[in-house]
Specification:
The protein is α+β, with helices and mostly antiparallel strands. It is built from 7 helices and 22 strands. It has helices at residues 11-18, 66-71, 85-91, 166-173, 218-224, 274-277, 280-295, and strands at 23-24, 26-31, 37-42, 46-49, 54-60, 74-79, 104-106, 112-114, 119-131, 134-146, 152-155, 158-161, 178-183, 185-186, 189-194, 201-202, 205-206, 227-240, 243-255, 264-268, 299-304, 308-312. It has a 7-stranded antiparallel beta sheet with strand order 3-2-6-9-10-5-4. A hairpin with a 5-residue loop joins strand 7 (104-106) and strand 8 (112-114). The longest helix is centred in the C-terminal third of the chain and has 16 residues, at 280-295. The site of flavin mononucleotide has 18 residues, from strand 3 and strand 5. Flavin mononucleotide binds next to strand 3 and strand 5.
């Protein structure tokens, strides 16, 4: 771990450390002196003041657009929607013709407002601050707009989704039988439930999430075994024909000593009897969980029983 008292840091490592701060993604735009649009991807956007209405974004001195931005009348900040990753990538490449085939229009300053963003702010320059290898552009907001679409997120060098992905949303809202389960881990052990009829071992699941007071629901079943959990993340969502499966990553809140019930039991990762699970999708999910638990970095699986996509959580 780097020491903050050291005078010089490894640039790449410092960038990685800053990257732990989760942000949205913006495209900052302006017009050059000939009216040609110019823009770059930025996550240094910050709201600054309500009265007067100010925001800031910092631009690298080395950026192709730096001189254009500092000389322009103003600039616009476009906050990207979660399906605008490729736009973000295009505007993160230096100097190319980024606006080709891109729909945009001007508002007050003429700086490009990009189609289908979740919010935009058209600004005149308020102040520019020299800040090391960047220049901080502080803008006074002249006009803005926003909508309810899910924004794109960025953390640790990767795009992240804040909302349900379209695939997940479709899965959750489509008709058919739903099975909800939870992956619950404690000290290197995972909670599995034995089906009293078939003998099969599976993560605990039910037809509904419910709550601790509803017998037979997922949370009710766990509560009656002395296990209190929170279900903050979806870990896998998949379907097979009309059956849908959603597995949450459970966060253990409290655990009664009297946990050992007839069906629920914590198994050491290394002592899971995989042949008793006998379900390829569940085995793949549990193996992924054990791998990701060791790395401390989780993802989400969306698809069907055989194939799907892994998204960063
Ligand atoms: C998610 C993300 C965030 C970025 N944030 C910034 C930023 O805040 N400031 C900046 O100067 N460059 C930032 N960049 C890099 C620029 O987008 C990149 O250097 C781009 O090439 C600059 O365009 P230009 O050289 O054509 O002006 C970011 C890139 C990505 C992918």
């Amino acid at each position: 771990m780097a020491d903050s008292r050291e005078a010089e840091f490894d640039a790449r490592d410092l960038r990685r450390a800053f990257g732990n701060f989760a942000t949205g993604v913006t495209i900052v735009t302006t017009l050059d002196k000939d009216g040609v649009p110019c823009g770059f991807t930025a996550n240094s956007f910050t709201s600054v003041s309500i009265d007067p209405p100010l925001l800031l974004v910092s631009i690298a001195r080395a950026a192709y657009g730096c001189d254009i931005f500092t000389a322009a009348r103003g600039f616009a900040v476009n906050i990207l929607a979660q399906d605008q990753r490729s736009l973000s990538n295009r505007f993160a490449r230096a100097g190319t013709d980024k606006f080709a085939e891109q729909q945009w229009y001007g508002a007050v300053t003429g700086s490009p407002i990009i189609d289908k963003v979740v919010a935009w702010f058209d600004c005149e320059h308020f102040q520019q601050v020299d800040a090391g290898d960047h220049i901080i552009l502080i803008g006074r907001v002249l006009r803005y707009s926003y909508n309810t679409h899910a924004p794109l997120g960025f953390c640790r060098g990767a795009y992240v989704s804040f909302g349900l992905t379209p695939g997940m949303l479709q899965l959750v809202s489509s008709p058919g039988h739903l099975r909800v389960g939870a992956i619950i881990e404690s000290e290197g052990k995972i909670l599995l439930e034995r089906n009293p009829d078939s003998g099969q071992l599976l993560p605990p699941s039910s037809d509904t999430v419910g709550n601790a007071g509803i017998p037979g629901s997922l949370l009710g079943k766990l509560a009656s075994a002395g296990i209190e959990v929170d279900l903050p993340f979806i870990y896998a969502a998949y379907h097979e024909h009309s059956e849908r499966f959603i597995y949450y990553l459970g966060e253990l809140l409290s655990l009664d000593d009297a946990i050992e019930t007839r069906t629920l039991h914590f198994y050491e990762f290394d002592h899971i009897t995989w042949e008793e699970i006998n379900d390829a999708a569940i085995i793949a999910m549990l193996e992924r969980f054990i791998r990701e638990k060791r790395l401390g970095n989780y993802s989400i699986y969306i698809g069907n029983r055989q194939s799907g996509e892994i998204h960063p959580a």
